[in-house]
Write a structure and sequence with these properties.
By secondary structure, this protein is mostly helical. It folds into two domains: 60 residues, Orthogonal Bundle (434 Repressor (Amino-terminal Domain)); 46 residues, no CATH class. 68% of the residues lie in helices and 0% in strands. It has eight helices and no strands. Helix 2 crosses helix 4.
């Protein structure tokens, strides 16, 4: 998955159009089109673009994310109620929530199979 694919994914998740992203990021709609079509590989306004797409800059640029932050949410809060945990999780960017859920499910499945 490249940056264009990640942008499209976030736009779909947020229900944003090219114009909506452009307005949020302070970029032209033409620049958003170039990024989405692959005609432009990057922008000097990557931070603003990530903010507009409500995601981590590192994830948008490279597809990577900081797993340490994810682990801190659930390893330090093992005594939370489900509603408290949901509240904590709501503070994470969407892509981190998905990664956490997948990691938790994998862990539960592997623990169950032992």
């Amino acid at each position: 998955m490249n940056m264009s694919d990640r942008m499209k994914q976030r736009m779909s998740e947020l229900g944003l159009t090219q114009e909506g992203v452009a307005l949020r990021a302070g970029l032209s709609q033409g620049m958003i089109y170039k990024l989405l079509s692959g005609k432009a590989k990057g922008t000097s306004k990557l931070v603003q673009l990530a903010q507009a797409l409500e995601c981590e800059v590192e994830w948008l640029a490279t597809g990577a994310y900081e797993t340490r932050e994810i682990r801190e949410v659930y390893s330090s809060n093992t005594r939370l109620t489900v509603s408290e945990l949901k509240e904590q999780l709501s503070l994470l960017p969407h892509n981190m929530k998905k990664a956490l859920v997948l990691e938790l499910l994998d862990s539960l499945i592997n623990d169950h199979n032992k």
